[in-house]
From TrEMBL:
InterPro entries: Homeodomain-like_sf, HTH-type_TetR-like_transc_reg, HTH_TetR, Tet_transcr_reg_TetR-rel_C_sf, TetR_C. Keywords: DNA-binding, Transcription, Transcription regulation. SUPFAM superfamilies: Homeodomain-like, Tetracyclin repressor-like, C-terminal domain. Residues 26-86 form the HTH tetR-type domain. Residues 49-68 bind DNA. Residues 1-24 are annotated as: Disordered. It comes from Nocardiopsis lambiniae. This is TetR/AcrR family transcriptional regulator. It comes from the Bacteria.
Length: 220
């Protein structure tokens, strides 16, 4: 029986039996994923354990070991499935709007347990370099990497901006400024400030030039 089966009572004498549920398959996997993310967000990587994940998910630790080798494997899989992805306008006709939305998504992620779990992995990169490498390889890159990169690549591929302007520097600008604002102000920037980052920095950097704010952006 693996983690896709009904949550079972613990068969480890030292393990507190979880409350029985009828969850199975995708529903149980989702509960385990959410438990791993919240455990990492609340307790950090050094206290992330199979016991804690199992307890929060309401299943047995032995069930987890039948599918995953350790808590880091669950966390990386969970982050991959929950990592948000910007979906630019199919017609590539709203660069400014798509860039703003990508930064809004990043700001919202920073306040979410998933974002805190991701920052926990990044913060431990010195002590856990292999885990950080796995995060980059198994989560960050497959899910599109930097949020603004997805947008800029989309518009470059469709000839709306010069592809040579989409560099490792320009794709970092938005994320770097959002994170710096959070460090300086101890909160994530609002939509108005995110629009300023796009208008004053990102658009000029990719040769799109500053665009006048739209009414909906000024009033939100």
């Amino acid at each position: 029986m693996d983690a896709s089966t009904t949550a079972e009572a613990a068969d480890d004498p030292g393990e507190v039996p979880p409350k029985r549920t009828r969850r199975r398959g995708p529903e149980l996997i989702e509960a385990i994923h959410e438990a791993a993310i919240v455990e990492a967000a609340e307790n950090g990587l050094h206290r992330l354990s199979m016991e804690g994940i199992a307890r929060r998910a309401g299943t047995a630790k032995t069930s987890l070991y039948r599918r995953w080798a350790g808590p880091a494997d669950i966390l990386l899989e969970a982050m991959y499935h929950h990592f948000p992805q910007e979906r630019p306008a199919p017609g590539a006709d709203d660069l400014r709007g798509d860039l703003i939305e990508s930064l809004v998504m990043l700001a919202e992620l920073s306040d979410d347990p998933l974002g805190r779990a991701m920052f926990a992995v990044i913060a431990e990169s010195v002590r856990e370099p292999k885990l950080h490498e796995r995060f980059t390889r198994e989560v960050f890159e497959p899910r599109g990497g930097r949020f603004t990169r997805t947008v800029l690549a989309h518009y470059a591929d469709r000839g709306r901006i010069d592809p040579s302007r989409v560099t490792d520097v320009t794709v970092d600008i938005g994320e770097a400024m959002v994170l710096k604002y959070a460090v300086d102000h101890r909160r994530t920037p609002g939509r108005d400030h995110l629009a300023r980052i796009v208008d004053e920095v990102i658009l000029p950097a990719v040769g799109a030039g500053p665009e006048p704010p739209r009414t909906d952006d000024r009033t939100r």
